[in-house]
Amino acid sequence: MTGIRMDDGRWEALSPGACLPAFLVWAVRVRPYELIKAKRDGKQLAPEDIRAFIEAYTSGAVPDYQMSALCMAVFFRGLNAVELGAWTQAMLRSGEVVDLSDVPGVKVDKHSTGGVGDKVSVSLAPLAAACGVPVPMISGRGLGHTGGTVDKLLSIPGFKMDVPVSEYRRLVREVGCCLISQTSAIAPADKKLYALRDVTATVDCIPLIASSIMSKKLAEGIDALVLDVKVGSGAFMKRAEDARTLARTMIGIGAEMGRKVTALLTDMEQPLGRAVGNALEIIEAVEMLRGRAPADYTEVTLALTAEMLVLGGKASSQAEARQKMHAAVKDGSAVRKLKEIVQAQGGDPRAIDDYSLLPQARSTVDVVAAQPGFITGIDTEAVGLAAVALGAGRQRVDSIIDPAVGFTLLRKEGEPVVAGEPIVRIHYNEPGPLEEVKERLLGAYRFGPQPPASRPLVLERLE
Ligand code: URA
C-alpha cells in the first residue's frame, strides 16, 4: 500500500496503482511548510517548486494562510531573477494566455502601480482607442489605500467587467478597447493573491508587485505596455530609487517575454486631480476627455497616452501624439469612444453626459483650514486611507464599497488658504465614520507661510 503524508503529519493510504494529482506528487516531495521555511531563512527556491506552489494555491490545495506566510517571507527576503521569472510565469500560466494576433494593429495597454485619485486609465483607454490604438486592458480593484479602475468603472450603471474572453477579443477588435477585471480565466493566481496581499500587508514589495502586474498584462494578449510607476507619499514606492528598481524589474520581465515596455515615473506626492472616490473620479475622467479636467491629471494622462500612440505606431513622436490627442478631445471622438465602450460593456452611456445618473452621495460637508498660509504638502496615503474609512475602498476582502462617496480636494499643494476656508469637501452617505475621516484629512494637510518648490509631474522615463 502506498500513502501520502498530509500537512498535519497523518499518512493517508492510497490504493495500489492510484494516480496522484500533480500537486500531491509535489507535496510528497516538498511540503509547503518547507518552502515557506526555506524562503524565510533566505534560501533560493527552485523554479519547479515555485510553479507547483502557485499552481496548488490557485487550485485551492495550498490554503491562504500558507500563501500569506510565503508572501511575507518574500517581502523580507525578496526573489532573485530566476525565482522572479518562475513566479511570474507560474502566475501568467495559471489561466488562459489570450492570443490577440488576429486583431489588427499593435495592441498596447497601460498599467499603474497605484495611487490616490489615479483615474488615468478611465480617460487614457478611450483616448488611445480614439487615436487608433487597440487597447486590451485588464484592471484591478482598489488595493490598500489606493483606488482601483475596476471599482471606478463599476460605478457606471450597468457596466460589466467580468467579460468572457471571446467577448473581450471581439470588443478589442470591433470597439478598439475592452476594459475587464481579473476573471478566473486570465491570471487567476494573481486575482487570488492580489486580494490576499491587500489584507496581509504584503502589497508594497517589488517582486510581488512586478509579478502581479506583468503576469496579468502578459496574459491579456498585448504587444506593448506603458507603465506608470507612481512615486511619493501616496504610492507603494515612496522613494524614486525603489520606483526605478520596480520599473526596471518590470521592463526586464517584459523583455524576457519579447514585449516592448516603457515606464514613466510619475508624481504621487499628492492625489492626482481633485476627485477621490469612484463615481466622482468617473466624472473627472469624462471631463478630461472634454478638455476640462485639472492640469496635473490631464498632463499625466497625455504623457502616458502619448507613449501608447508611439508604441502602437500611430504617432512617430510625442509631439505628433499630442496633436492627435488634442484633435480627439476637440472633435469629441475621445468622449464618443468612451460612450461606445460603456455601451458595449452593458453600461448606460447617458451617464457620460448626465452625471446625475451616476451614484450620488446624499450629503456633503467641508473640512476647513485651521490656519492661514499655503498648503505645503499632503500625506497622500492618509487621504487614501480616509477614503477607505469613508467606504470608498475596502477594509476587508469582502467589504462592499460605496461608489458615491469620496472627496473633492478644493485646495492642493502650493495653493493659498485663509483660516476657516474649505479645503476638502466630503461626499458621504453614512455619518458614522465622518469624524474619523475629517481628522485623517486635517492631519494629512500641511500648512506653512511659503508655497513649496514645484515638482515635475513626470520624473523620469525608462525603456
Ligand atoms: N497593481 C497590481 O496590479 N498589482 C500590485 O501588486 C500592485 C499594483
Provide the list of bound ligands, each named once. uracil
Distance between the termini: 58 Å
What is the annotated CATH architecture of the largest domain? 3-Layer(aba) Sandwich
* Helix count from the secondary structure assignment: 17
Beta content comes to 15-25%
Radius of gyration: 23 Å
User: What kind of sheet is the major sheet?
Assistant: 4 strands, mixed
Q: How does the helix and strand content classify structurally?
A: alpha+beta
Helix content: 40-55%
Strand order of the largest sheet: 3-6-7-15
CATH top level assignment of the largest domain: Alpha Beta
CATH superfamily grouping of the largest domain = Nucleoside phosphorylase/phosphoribosyltransferase catalytic domain
How many beta-strand segments?
A: 15
What average pLDDT do the residues reach? 92
Q: What is the general shape?
A: globular
Which parts are unreliable, with pLDDT below 50 for 5 consecutive residues or more? 1-18
The third-level CATH topology of the largest domain is: Pyrimidine Nucleoside Phosphorylase, Chain A, domain 2
Number of domains: 3
